[in-house]
Amino acid sequence: MSLPPEKASELKQIIHNHLIKMNIHAKIRDVLAETVREDLDPGHSSLSEEDFLRALQCRGIVDDVMKDLHFSKVSSGKSSCFDRKCLTPTNMDPARRYLYLQVLGGKAFLEHLQEPEPLPGQVCSTFTLYLHFRNQRFHSKPVPCACEPDLQEGFLLEIHREGLGDGSKMADATTMLSICDPVHLVLIKRDTSSETTLVSSYFLDWRTVLSSPSGKTSVAVELLGVGSECKVTAGVLNMSLDLYPPLSEILSPDIITTQQSLERQKTAEKERLFLVYAKQWWREFLEIRQANQSKLVKIFAQDENGVNRPVCSYVRVLRAGRLLESPRQAARFVSLLGLEKAPVVGGGGAGKQEQWCSLLAFLCRNKGDCEDHATLLCSLLLGFGLDAYVCVGTKPKSLAHTWVMTRGTDSTITFWESLTAHRYLHQAIDPDAPPLAPQPRPSYPYRTIGCVFNHRSFLANCQPSDAVELCSFDFHNQSQWKAMSEEAVGSVCSPGSTTSLPPLPPLCGPSLEPSAASNQLELELRYLVVEHRKDLGLATVWDDHLSYVLSSALAAYELERCTGTSCGNEEFQDAVRRAVPDGHTFKGFPIHFLHHNARRAFATCLRSPFCDEIVCCRGDHVRLAVRVRVFAYPESACAVWVMFACKYRSVL
């Protein structure tokens, strides 16, 4: 992991000070003199660096240095971790308050009771713990899945004040008591084929540490399952919470309990009032016309913990900083996150399992259902300043679906499919037009629409027909759309309105280095092609220049997915014509993946008869080429383009 320049110089200074403290220079001089005296005969002209390093190791100098030199564990995020034995960690601002959360191992993960001990070097399923606290995100190192997983990790969380001009002031006990933001813990399991599973999502109230005289407390966190298993214990994590610097005045446990109780009562009252309002609003909606009973109007949705939340609370204004440059790039990013419907125990149910994920759980798992994609895309489009809404309706065959809609200042309606990043312009059909009058033909795959919502608004479709092609999207027309009160929606959905709302995590930068990932995957695919052809009794000769020429096509494919416009095709065709001699035939096969697993990609490619024909090409003067381009996006999302090609002399 690379360090910023200021951290690198800081680390060098720590090591330098430690070496001076050990009087290392005197020890080195003694070893050097002894080595020259003992190990050199008159025939040697000089002492090599390797000889001297070996002498230092033999005399235990290197071991002594490393034994006394303690480094902190470092986790991804703004802050770093520190060792409690080190009371003045160098990566901490002495004017700030920090919470050191240490994970001390897990137990009672009974699903892995029969899990065998992994052999050294063996690929096995792993657990990774993700954290989010007040705009700071961290994750642990992956550890093998076990009944008692060895999750040993520390995270340094900064507790900052939020008042104007208070960002640099240290938070006192009273200020911290009023900070109701929990530490959101998400445990992810990754199997041997890199498939991820959400194990648990837990909100930890850390404020019990404010009543500890030592500024340190231990807690056993019982992690519950998700979805249909949200009432079943998944496992237990042992943790310790440590405030740094310690409080000069601690709080009584009764004060903390009272504060938490008041927050719960306030939240419960707001949710009760909203539920009363929503029931009344729903009765009024049904009284408008009989057909409204069959429309898909969704006011509440269950999250991964089985908690019913207003759908508007799943959408927030999300700005991606420098990570995403445009709304269309945001749509491309969301489409690269995998699609997976919530699993249903038994599998034979008529409907799918209800599960809308909190944003952190969705991002950490790197996949989710269409609702998760739509709410994330809507949040990002709102961050880019668009008037965006999530649409709830159906696709062909009456399959429930969600997608995103934006309204332009000129009343233009655009649909965004969050699973593919495709955009569709909506033009309403006039049902009262003469039979022979030309009508627009819809290009979008949506059939009906029951309601739309974002972080501030919820509107139900009360038009005579809920067919998308017949709908008007004039939200100010109360005869067409029945809106909820924005004040009522804001009372339970606006940031900070209730303590039950999960905090909004920031997006993290790409976890891949594109060039290195592209080179590695290309080398692995070349090896697999050579081995596959060897099994067929065929030799393999690579054309490196042709492989390089394929790069421009892959870049153009990704650009087209991002912007919707195609460019560079003329240059690519011209370069291929120059690279393929007269009398030769060229064949190419591009394919797109959301992962960078070489064996999975190669197996998928061979299932295509076109690719199999290229890889297994027989003929005169056959030359093969393969090119890989990995495009990294925020989180661990990536677009992987692979093109196989061959050229050979045509024989009539």
What is the number of helical segments per DSSP (H or I, 4+ residues)?
16
* Average of the residue pLDDT scores: 86
Question: What percentage of amino acids are in beta strands?
Answer: 15-25%
Instruction: Give the structural class.
Output: alpha+beta
Strand order of the largest sheet: 17-16-15-14-18-19-20
Q: Name the poorly predicted regions.
A: 71-89
Number of strands: 23
Spatial extent as radius of gyration: 30 Å
The helical percent reads: 25-40%
Apparent shape = flat
Largest sheet: 7 strands, antiparallel
Distance between the termini: 57 Å
Protein architecture, described:
The protein is α+β, with helices and mostly antiparallel strands and about 650 residues long. The chain is built from 16 helices and 23 strands. A hairpin with a 5-residue loop joins strand 14 (about 385-395) and strand 15 (about 400-405). Keywords: Cytoplasm, Cytoskeleton. Belongs to the CEP76 family. Its main location: cytoplasm. It comes from Oncorhynchus tshawytscha (Chinook salmon).
